C-alpha cells in the first residue's frame, strides 16, 4: 500500500513550524499514545534543538494503560518529561502545568538568579495532523484563559494564550508531517486514522489489524464480534457475516466489514489497544 500524501502541505507546514519555533522556549510534542514512535517525526529533534521539550501521549484513553506507563517511562529515560493525557476527556490536564514548569525549570531559575521577573516561558504545541493538537490547546487553555494581544515585532500575527503567570502558549500548533519511509509506520498511521481513508485499501488494513490483534490482544476481536477464525481473511468474512455486511445479491461486503472493524478500533470499542512497544533498551 502506498501511504504518501499531500507533499504540498508538508512543505508549507515545515516552513511555518520553522518560523514559529523561533518564538518559543518550550516545545510540547503531542504523540498518539497508541503508536508513539510512528506518530513522531524525529525531525522535531533538529527543529527543536536547544528548546525544552515535554512529550504528551495524547488519546491515552484509547491506549493500553500498561503501555501508556511503559512509554512514559521510556521517554523519561531519554531525558524528556512525558505524561499520558486525554485531551478530549481532559484527563491529565492538572499534571501538565507542573510538567511544563518542570521542563522549563532551568530557564525560570536562571531568570530568578538574574532578578528577572514576570518573563513567562513561551511554549508551542506540535504534532502530526489529527493527533489532537487543537483539542489539547482548547482543553488546556479552557475558557478562562485570556488571550494576549499581538506584540509588535517578534510576535506579529501570533496570538498567545496566558496559561498562568509563568507560561504563555502559542494558540496555533506546529504541524509536523508524518514520516513514511518505513511501511510499518505508514500502516500504523493508517490504522490510527491519520491518513485519509479514501486512499487506503481498507480490507488490507483490516487483515493487518486482525493479525496484530491475534498476537498482541488475543480475544479482543472474538469478544467484540462473537466469532473467531485463526486466519485473518476468514475472520473478516465472519465479521461481515455476523454484522450483516452484504452487497446486493447477498455476497459478503468485506469492504464494509473492514470499515466497521476500523471504526471499532479507532473509537476504542475493541478495547484499549497500543500498536507498538517501547524499544527494549530505553
Ligand atoms: P489536530 O489539531 O492535531 O489535527 O487534531 P484535533 O484536535 O482536530 O483532533 C482530531 C480528533 O481526535 C478529533 O476527533 C478529536 O476529538 C480527537 N481527539 C483529540 N484528543 C483526543 C483524546 O485525547 N482522546 C480521544 N479519544 N480523542 C481525541 P474527531 O472525530 O475528528 O472530531 P470530534 O468527533 O471530536 O468532533
Explain how this protein is built.
- A hairpin with a 2-residue loop joins strand 6 and strand 7 (about 165-170).
- Strands 1, 2, 3, 4, 5, 6, 7 and 8 form an eight-stranded mixed β-sheet that branches.
- With about 280 residues, the protein is α/β, with parallel strands linked by helices.
- Mean pLDDT is about 90; it is low at about 150-155.
- The protein starts with 6 loop residues before the first helix and ends in a 16-residue tail after the last helix.
- Helix 8 (about 200-215) packs across helix 11 and helix 10 (about 230-240) packs across helix 11 (about 255-265).
- The protein has helices spanning about 5-20, 45, 65-75, 95-105, 105-115, 135-140, 185-190, 200-215, 220-225, 230-240, 255-265, and strands at about 25-30, 50-60, 80-85, 120-125, 145-150, 160-165, 165-170, 175.
- The protein is built from eleven helices and eight strands.
- Guanosine-5',3'-tetraphosphate binds next to helix 6.
- Guanosine-5',3'-tetraphosphate binds near residues 88, 127 and 131.
Question: What key phrases describe this protein's structure?
Answer:
single chain; 282 residues; alpha/beta; eight-stranded mixed sheet; binds guanosine-5',3'-tetraphosphate; cytoplasm; GTP binding; GTPase activity; G_CP_dom; Ribosome biogenesis GTPase A
Amino acid at each position: 500500500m502506498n501511504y504518501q500524501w499531500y507533499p504540498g502541505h508538508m512543505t508549507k507546514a515545515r516552513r511555518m513550524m520553522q518560523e514559529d519555533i523561533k518564538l518559543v522556549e518550550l516545545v510540547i510534542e503531542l504523540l498518539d499514545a497508541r503508536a508513539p514512535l510512528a506518530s513522531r517525526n524525529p525531525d522535531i529533534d533538529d527543529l527543536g534543538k536547544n528548546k525544552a521539550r515535554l512529550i504528551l501521549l495524547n488519546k491515552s484513553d484509547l491506549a493500553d494503560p500498561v503501555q501508556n506507563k511503559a512509554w512514559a517511562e521510556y521517554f523519561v529515560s531519554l531525558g524528556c518529561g512525558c505524561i499520558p493525557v486525554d485531551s478530549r476527556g481532559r484527563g491529565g490536564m492538572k499534571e501538565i502545568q507542573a510538567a511544563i514548569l518542570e521542563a522549563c525549570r532551568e530557564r525560570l531559575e536562571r531568570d530568578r538568579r538574574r532578578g528577572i521577573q514576570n518573563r513567562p516561558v513561551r511554549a508551542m504545541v506540535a504534532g502530526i495532523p489529527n493527533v489532537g493538537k487543537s483539542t489539547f490547546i482548547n482543553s488546556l487553555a479552557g475558557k478562562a484563559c485570556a488571550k494576549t494581544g499581538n506584540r509588535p515585532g517578534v510576535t506579529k500575527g501570533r496570538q498567545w494564550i496566558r496559561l498562568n503567570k509563568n507560561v504563555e502558549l502559542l494558540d496555533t500548533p506546529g504541524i509536523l508531517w508524518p514520516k513514511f519511509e518505513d511501511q510499518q509506520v505508514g500502516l500504523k498511521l493508517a490504522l490510527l486514522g491519520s491518513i485519509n481513508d479514501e486512499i487506503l485499501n481498507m480490507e488490507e488494513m483490516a487483515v493487518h489489524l486482525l493479525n496484530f490483534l491475534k498476537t498482541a490482544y488475543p480475544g479482543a476481536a472474538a469478544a467484540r464480534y462473537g466469532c473467531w477464525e485463526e486466519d485473518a481473511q476468514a475472520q473478516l468474512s465472519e465479521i461481515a457475516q455476523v454484522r450483516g455486511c452484504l452487497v446486493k445479491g447477498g455476497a459478503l461486503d468485506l469492504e464494509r466489514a473492514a470499515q466497521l472493524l476500523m471504526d471499532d478500533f479507532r473509537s476504542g470499542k475493541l478495547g484499549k489497544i497500543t500498536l507498538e512497544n517501547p524499544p527494549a533498551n530505553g
